[in-house]
Amino acid sequence: MTEPAPGQTAVVEQTGARLHPLTPFVKGWGYFVVAAFALVNNEGLRSNLELAGIGLAVVLVGGILLGALSWWFTKWQLTDDAIRVDSGFLFRRTRIIRFDRIQAIDVAQPIVARLFGMAELRMDVAGGGKSDGKLSYFRYDEAGKLRTILLVRAKGGRVAEQQEQQFESEPLLVVPTSRLLGATLLSSTVLGSAGALIWLIVATMVLDFHIGLFAALPLAFGVVQPIWKQVVGNHGFTLSETDHGLRTKRGLLDVQRQTVPPGRVQGLLITEPLIWRLLGWARVELDIAGVAGNKEDGDDEREGAQLLPVGDRGEVAGVLARILPGLDLARIQMHVAPERAKWLRPVGWRYLAYGADDQVFVTVRGWVSRRTSIVLNHKTQSVRLEQGPLQRRLGLANVHVDTPLGPTDAIALHRDQFEAAALVQAQADRAREARRTASAPAAVHTQPNPPSPDGSSSSAASPADDSSAR
Amino acid sequence: MDDLFAPSDVSWTPVSPKLATVRRLNAALMFGVAGIGALVVLGLTVGWTYGVLALVVLGAGFVWSWVLIGRNQRSWKYAERDDELLVSHGIMFRELVVVPYGRMQFVDVTAGPLERAYGIATVELHTATPATDAKIPGLHPDEAGRLRDRLSALGQAQAWGL
């Protein structure tokens, strides 16, 4: 990775560049609104418009000045094997992110930035929080170019001549809004909250049961929030494949584009809530190191990269084939938990199962909401065998296959203890074998074929039925 | 019968009995403070009979924890395979962890004041996931140092990106 990249200097100079000059304004508009709101709400100031105007102007100018200072002192540059960001004017900070450590790249456009045609670049690094690799703001096309460079170098390649092409590539799959809305309305959170809300209203009206009113607010939130998150946040969810990995785009107001370079997927989670299962729908999430947030930062630890917010069986199979070519979940023999597990899981024991082949380890569990976790063998971090006192009485044990923080939790629950012990050995062996055979350290295939200029459009065969289904 | 949580194809190293001593001392401190507290509080508010009763209950608890700590200490063991570190521990809640050296992100060696006084240390191997629980307490400082160096060396030799 030490070879000079001649094409690179053409796009960005090596000496350190500043971000978009409008950055302070786009970042600071929120404070301005808050200040304006506070002034409007203040009785004394409302009667004295002149003072209010001056106050607002001070906040505005001060904010812009501070923002401008921070902008002036923030510089970024590309070195031979890393991107370097210097920031801060009182406390200087230099952050260097090596290209080969970048796990995924997001180009996000919050609504205001979008109005100005600007975008923010987020580099997900294992172990880092969400805001750690953030660079905002760029002009949108500039962000796209930089992303391409980073992605090419994250794969360990040189910046080739192909970097100009296909910023927006042919979509593999688009999730229609109607289905997003339907799926959200049929999800257990919304149904449960709505049901409880209706019960509350009835109880309050008919039975004069007034305590309930306090619970109405969180319940109403439980109905509205998932709808907002799903329908607005995932609006127009588009999955496409480029030379540099899988790319998703979503959002109605704030647009998010995420790119996952090949070989960065640690695991997958397929979730099928009860009602979705009847309709044949499922959600697919990816486990990528660094995408799941830090608990301390108040992010959701279980959040992963969405691969498919809701899709039917054909689409799920299609995206799985993209991520793990040659994998057929139906072909993997699943082993169901022994019947004595019913003492610990009275209903759900029937649905506990695990299976493995030389590529993946799969666990299934869940009675109401079915969760299928898939871990790539060569990404296995550690294998654990666990047994509690009750389990020991029944001769059962759990096997955990650990992946970095994320949605995937591959736990083979309540297996026969001898089988479990053998499974730990077998999985450790499989992981070792998979690490050996997965050739070069950098490139492990998540793409079926080596990148070719027309690769994305020609191979979009299997999930193509989606467009007709709309 | 082969122990499920300690496969016999590798040689297992037990941890130092001093671990039990340190933990018992800790327990004695805890139970002692709690016992005296309970005696005084209950004695002054309810009656000294209850205070003494609480003391007896806590004393019994301490004896029980004495036994448990001993059993737990004997259950800790680790083994080094060619590619993996194995750690096994627990009596009530048993656990066996298998961590490939190449997955190591960093190694911690820690020793609290009490542990230092008794000459033991804890080695913990961290991977990219916090779920991995490869901690070996009660090691002689020399052994802890050796293990740390060996783990770092092996981790580097077999390093595997995420």
Query: How many structural units, i.e. domains of chain A?
Result: 3
The CATH C-level name of the largest domain in chain B is Mainly Beta
The helix tally of chain B amounts to: 4
Greatest contact between two chains: A-B, 37 and 28 residues
Q: What is the CATH H-level superfamily of the largest domain in chain B?
A: Pleckstrin-homology domain (PH domain)/Phosphotyrosine-binding domain (PTB)
Number of domains of chain B: 2
Estimate the mean pLDDT confidence of chain A.
79
Helix-residue proportion of chain A: 25-40%
Q: How far from one another are the termini of chain B?
A: 38 Å
Individual helix count of chain A: 15
Strand order of the largest sheet of chain A: 6-5-4-10-9-8-7
The main pleated sheet of chain A reads as: 7 strands, antiparallel
Features of this protein?
heterodimer; A: about 475 residues; alpha+beta; PH-domain like; 3 domains; seven-stranded antiparallel β-sheet; 20 strands; about 35% helix; about 25% strand; globular; disordered C terminus; B: about 160 residues; four-stranded antiparallel β-sheet; three-stranded antiparallel β-sheet; 4 helices; elongated
Structural description of this entry:
The complex is a heterodimer of chains A (470) and B (162). With 470 residues, chain A is α+β, with helices and mostly antiparallel strands. In chain A, 37% of the residues lie in helices and 25% in strands. Chain A has helices spanning 8-11, 23-41, 43-47, 49-72, 111-115, 140-154, 177-185, 188-207, 213-232, 274-279, 313-323, 389-394, 417-437, 455-458, 465-469; strands at 75-78, 82-87, 93-98, 102-109, 118-125, 134-139, 171-174, 238-242, 245-250, 255-260, 267-272, 281-287, 305-312, 335-336, 353-356, 360-365, 370-376, 382-387, 396-402, 410-416. In chain A, a hairpin with a 7-residue loop joins strand 19 and strand 20 (410-416). Chain B is α+β, with helices and mostly antiparallel strands. Chain B has two domains: 18-72; 77-157, Roll (PH-domain like), CATH 2.30.29.30. Helix content of chain B is 49%, strand content 22%. Chain B has helices at residues 18-45, 48-75, 113-118, 141-157, and strands spanning 13-14, 77-80, 84-89, 94-100, 106-110, 121-126, 134-139. In chain B, strand 2 (77-80) and strand 3 (84-89) form a beta hairpin. In chain B, helix 1 runs antiparallel to helix 2 (48-75). Chain B is elongated and about 65 Å long. Chains A and B meet through strand 18, strand 19 and helix 13 of A and strand 4 of B.
